[in-house]
Amino acid sequence: MTKPDSEHGNVFPDKKISGLQLLDLFDLQELQQIQDAFATATGVSALITDPAGVPITRPSNFSDYCKLIRSVPAGLARCMNSDAALGLVNPAGPVLGRCLSGRIFDGGTAIMIGDRQIGNWLVGQVIDEPVDEKMVRMLADELGIDEEQLVQAARKVPRVSREQFQGICKALHVFGSQLSRQALQIFEQRRYIEALHQTQATLAENEERYRALVQRSSEAIVIIDPDTRQILETNRHFQELLGYTEPELQGMPVYNIVEDARHSVDRYYDEVLPVQHELPVELRLFRHKDGHGVEVERSGVIVHLQGKKVYMVTARDVTERRLIEEKMNFLSFHDVLTGLYNRTYFEEELNRLERRREGAVGLILFDLDGLKLVNDSFGHEQGDQLLVRTAELIQGCFREADVVARIGGDEFAVIIRDATEEIMEEAIARVGAAVNGLQAREQRIPLSLSAGYAFAGDKTVVMRDLFREADNNMYREKLHRSQSARSAIVQTVMSLLEARDFITEGHAERLQGMLTKLARAAGLPESRMIDLRLLAQFHDIGKVGIPDRILLKPGPLSPDEMTEMKRHSEIGHRIAQSSPDLLPVADWVLKHQEWWNGKGYPLGLAGERIPIECRILAIADAFDAMTSDRPYRKAMGQEAAIAELHRCAGTQFDPELVELFIQVCRESAEA
User: Catalytic site residues?
Assistant: First the structure.
């Protein structure tokens, strides 16, 4: 990645750190390759800019949404301000935030040399929740962009959980920090070589100063006699690099510390050095005292000591950089979350099989049923854990030679060579048995997989057609399984709420009875009663996403805790929308905390804009809560609860329905 020395004359002429730019230190093409690899591996966009936000590299994976915004001057100015803000120096980690123009998630880390910033590495252009189309239209109007075009582009912005994006940004910070360290090392190495050139002219009078310079250098340095090939002198960094003491290295043949063959070393000293006098930076493998190889960037120069020509070598350990490059290569073809092969590798494998196929091949597709509902109910962290468990389960059911990949958010694929129909069916049966075994052993979130396969014994079958056939077969099974899978997840949510002692015994049954009585008294048709019973049972389902410390707190909630608690109606709405069983009551679940005077949440609806079903539920739910024992208080009497309903009529509750409810209660008590 180091920029060739020839472009600098081995030094930075008249440049100090304050005058250096990113491209003085790094090769643009290699920066672009690393950026592209990071974007491909993580699925997010990436860009490297100068500290002011001006792009240095070409964008990787940029979304159409951001391209549209950047296509107008006002949008570009906002984006550059965001880029500069996200690249602010923060030693503790990456800077995360929402873009100033598009309101999507972005992250960034600074690239430094010493304490001076020379660039920003930015990633993002993702969202963690549905697009706010109203906001997008307002932005389009403000920037003068076609509304429909911007809305369509916004719908295609990748969805990534906040936790997963934070993990990507942490990895970005590690890579950015490594670039910063490397920038400083490159600068010091070249500054050191410059100092050597300046010093060599006066070495005869100032040899002690020269030796002090060698010992103080931050680079690993060894001085070698080119005639005997023996080590004359080393500094502390070189000794630490190879694990030797200075006396151990003194007089040691150079052959003992390099992995090159002896004849290659001799050729280097006999033929190359006499002609070139100095050598450019290149990668070489040195040998550590314990025997393992140490990869270094090595450069060399002929100098004069005590009237004799000697060869001075500087070496910089690039093991850490190599590990990062290997990790980047791994991430280019592997899924970050599960460690399986990713879509890129899977597509390349299909192309390889298309070009050169020997024998029959089978393709199995799996889809994790109900993942969106799990994310909405339990959070993306639990959804990610479910994906990891699923990946481990599927991989454990196949041979090492089979290609197992995660090809989408909830989709997995397996390529089986030398397949038969029997092998394919047995493989799917193994996965099914593993799922059942896991469910029997662990009482966690239900795991359900839909599967479909296709088999090609004939080489003329196109791999894309085979994939399409497997996908169609999988989709047909998903139609049969998805509703039961969602129902199982919803029941798990309710069981968890009951296990947390939030839903008190008999609450749903009492509430169903009160709701139906009040609804009939209010003149609602009988056809509405089934949905009202559902509402009574599931209106608080969103509280599964609220932490226990808030949900079960015996005393009053703080303002921040109350804000968190108020999210439960929106969480419940998303859960209900994801479940066909609860879809009829999804709108009521969203609005059941609205107040008659408009001071409820989340929409601030007032009066008859609140569905009557929600107004009925609010009264009945409050009455049951007041007349039931709670861990932190005893139940009220019926008359005290009625008095409280009277007090809140016209503010929290519909006053006419309050009077009707009280009438129904007293009639029931007399009956």
Answer: 410
